[in-house]
Amino acid sequence: MQQYSGFGLLKHSLTYHENWQRVWSNPTPKKHYDVVIIGGGGHGLATAYYLAKEHGITNIAVIEKGYLGGGNTARNTTIVRSNYLWDEASHLYEHSLKLWEGLAQELNYNLMFSQRGVLNLGHTLQDMRDIERRVNANRLNGIDGEVLTTAQVQEMVPILDCSTNARFPVMGASWQARAGTARHDAVAWGFARAADALGVDLLQQTEVTGIRRKDGAVEGVETNRGFISAGKVACVAAGNSSVIAKMVGMELPLESHPLQAMVSEPLKPILNTVVMSNHVHGYVSQSDKGDLVIGAGIDGYTGYGQRGSFNVVEHTIAAIIEMFPIFSRVRLNRAWGGVVDTCPDACPIISKTHIKGLYFNCGWGTGGFKATPGAGHVFAHTIANDEPHPLAKPFSIDRFSSGELIDEHGAAGVAH
Ligand SMILES: Cc1cc2nc3c(=O)[nH]c(=O)nc-3n(C[C@H](O)[C@H](O)[C@H](O)COP(=O)(O)OP(=O)(O)OC[C@H]3O[C@@H](n4cnc5c(N)ncnc54)[C@H](O)[C@@H]3O)c2cc1C
Q1: Fewer Cβ close by (within 10 Å): the C or N end of the chain?
Q2: Could you list the pLDDT tens digit for every one of the 416 residues in the chain?
Q3: Same-domain status, 329 and 396
Q4: Which residues form the Rhodanese domain (predicted)?
């Protein structure tokens, strides 16, 4: 794999940047793979990378119906944090955050990972009690977190309306300093490039239309480019997971909803952290390009269209203006939607299934981007060993029959 460096940049400038190696190849599908991964988003690509790197399984195909990262991976608002409430979830997200901290070096790819911190505002006494409880739980789990007063929040974000006249006065906030943002498509590209270098086939414009089984075990996948035989099939299809599950007669406890985000015109640097409010129901950060990156909750109806409804855009903007009246005359540049797979307990499913050789990583809903390296890492272990990684064990699909749910609605909230 060609190493990227400042020296390389200089060298290529001498030939007008015309001789860069292609970042990944475009192979013809083989007849058989040891592992077929359905879905070329960040999670699918990370799974392939860790399978090849840590488990020595390199005869892998990642099958993507569109282009790599074109699902939720490159549509999300890129917030990365690990301050979830329950032990099981916070350990999983913290595992991921630790991987993020060294990932750009490991992949030799600039992921623009920026630990600019995340604030979660509290507007009522109950918000503040919930914040204190969560920060205490995080600290007991070795995860950084602080409870800030209104004055500390105001000092950190001078443009936030912290006045007592505000409709939803800011009473304080939780603060995770190691949290932040990353460049979403770079994450897909970085994992894709590293997986390709380890021998993984990345098959774009290839749609899985069926899963063949024999005697209770998977045999391979039907695609628009023909049948591909596989020892194991791993589904990482986010909003389309239920569609894939239906191919083998399985019903997943998921609902697919549109989730929207939007960006403004680029502004000079004005906001150097991420500000979220579950109560007012919106969040905002400023990208390195200068745009305000804005998001909120899901659209209420279910659907598979990668777009949402106007009323959600309107409510989201109202929430942002409530908190930041200074943004009232900023113009929006673009709005778009993704399809998120929400689970009843706001936690993911990382699991084997009753079909031998068939695995699912899904149900990340509105908050799986932050988990990309961690989820890929533990899912690869689960597939390679046919046994759940200890961090993935609580997220087995069996929890919906055993009742051992992990309710993270409070920490998930609007707070992606
Ligand atoms: C607007 C928005 C904002 C968000 N904000 C955040 C945030 O700030 N922080 C955060 O942590 N998370 C956020 N998320 C959630 C996050 O984006 C997802 O949880 C995460 O990206 C899921 O990654 P993935 O690789 O599993 O899915 P995806 O990137 O969606 O990849 C799944 C892939 O499967 C492919 N596929 C589906 N069916 C088939 C088939 N039959 N054959 C072949 N390929 C198929 C799709 O084309 C897609 O590329 C947000 C999501 C949205 C939509």
Answers
A1: N
A2: 889 999 999 999 999 999 999 999 999 999 999 999 999 999 999 999 999 999 999 999 999 999 999 999 999 999 999 999 999 999 999 999 999 999 999 999 999 999 999 999 999 999 999 999 999 999 999 999 999 999 999 999 999 999 999 999 999 999 999 999 999 999 999 999 999 999 999 999 999 999 999 999 999 999 999 999 999 999 999 999 999 999 999 999 999 999 999 999 999 999 999 999 999 999 999 999 999 999 988 999 999 998 889 999 999 999 999 999 999 999 999 999 999 999 999 999 999 999 999 999 999 999 999 999 999 999 999 999 999 999 999 999 999 999 999 999 988 876 56
A3: no
A4: 35-79
Query: CA separation (Å) from 19 to 6, 15, 193, 263?
Result: 16, 7, 17, 34
Residue 8 lies in a domain: no
| Residue range(s) defining the domain that contains residue 313 | 118-182+256-342
Tell how far the Cα of 42 is from the centroid of ligand 1, in angstroms. Answer: 8
| The ligand 1 atom nearest the CA atom of 78 | 8
Q: Does the Cβ of 44 fall within 6 Å of ligand 1?
A: yes
Task: Compute, in angstroms, the gap from residue 41 CA to the centroid of ligand 1.
Answer: 6
Between helix 42-55 and helix 184-197 the angle, nearest 10°, is 30
Rounded distance from Cα 306 to ligand 1 centre (Å): 11
Give the separation between CA 318 and CA 328, rounded to whole angstroms.
9
Classify residue 17: in a domain, yes or no. no
Query: Does ligand 1 lie within 6 Å of residue 43's CB atom?
Result: yes
Q: Whose CA is nearest to atom 12 of ligand 1?
A: 367
Please say whether the beta carbons of 170 and 160 come within 8 A.
Answer: yes
- Is the residue at 19 inside a domain? no
- CA 44 – ligand 1 centroid, Å: 10
Owner of token pair 């009753």: 354
CA of 74, closest atom in ligand 1: 29
CATH of the domain at 101: 3.50.50.60
Q: How far apart are CA 244 and CA 210, in angstroms?
A: 8
DSSP state of 116: -
Q: Is the CB of 367 under 6 A from ligand 1?
A: yes
Ligand 1: does its nearest atom lie under 6 Å from the Cβ of 338?
Answer: yes
